Amino acid sequence: MSEQGPSDDQRWQRELIERLSMASLQEQRRARRWSIFFKLLLFGYLFTLLYLAVNPLNLKGVEELGGRHTAVIDLQGAIGVDSDASADNLVTALRDAFEDENTAGVVLRINSPGGSPVQSDYVYHEIRRLREKYPETPIYAVVQDLCASGGYYIASATDKIYANPASLVGSIGVLMNGFGFVDTLDKLGIERRLYTAGESKGFLDPFTPAKAQDIAHVQGLLAGIHQQFIEAVKQGRGERLKEDPSLFTGLLWDGRQAKELGLIDDFASTSQVAREVIKEEKLVDFTVKKSEWEQFAERFGTAVGRGAVETLGLEPNLR
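Above: the chain's sequence. Below: its structure in token form.
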């Protein structure tokens, strides 16, 4: 009797097992390659951080060249505790600039809509303190696109303020804003339950009707801060300010109007002030910034995470 070969059913089962085995083997190899890749990537990342920690990069660039210079400090964006334009960052930069024996003058380059009155006041008084301590080192504010509210609060402490005719300057006022959703809740049939200890503890709650005495209290708070702002500007600008009833109403003016009102002194850019006023054209940036390795770590971490998401197919399809 001749030996019979495997049936079609047996052959199909064997081929299926072989294909599954090969697929499993390929998947294991793929997973192993990705594991090695990410381990090498992590090693490179840690090695780079270690190298930058041991060999920190110079953050001020040309400062190492020495010689007289104009110190530049950027005040960019909203002024707040957690922002780049915080009082801690700005005060640190100002002290570094004034304490440098090669600093001929300081330019505070401003492009800010304002922000925290407390942070602005800290910087304002630090500028005045440093001016008294280093009377031979002038400090000038140079407005870029915008110098409003807290930004102008700080600028008014400097010796002179320069801007562009198209710059926006002013907004000497204080605001507190929010929303009220009382009628919205009523229409939706939702009952707001707020429990407090203290008659006015919940007076800023957006779901509770505003009371006349609470509104008066807030207005009093804002008026007090506004008066502090006005006094600081008057102290800083002095007789250069014109008598105008709209000066402290919170309005903004362009550079030409601001000059007529005495809010700024003249038109000039940072390089012009350095070259023509301070007489030291070389600029050295004293702005407190994240270190190079911190910036690298953020960019690198973002790039790695993004690459992993795209490679592993975890990117959601929103199209």
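The first strand starts at residue 69 and ends at 76.
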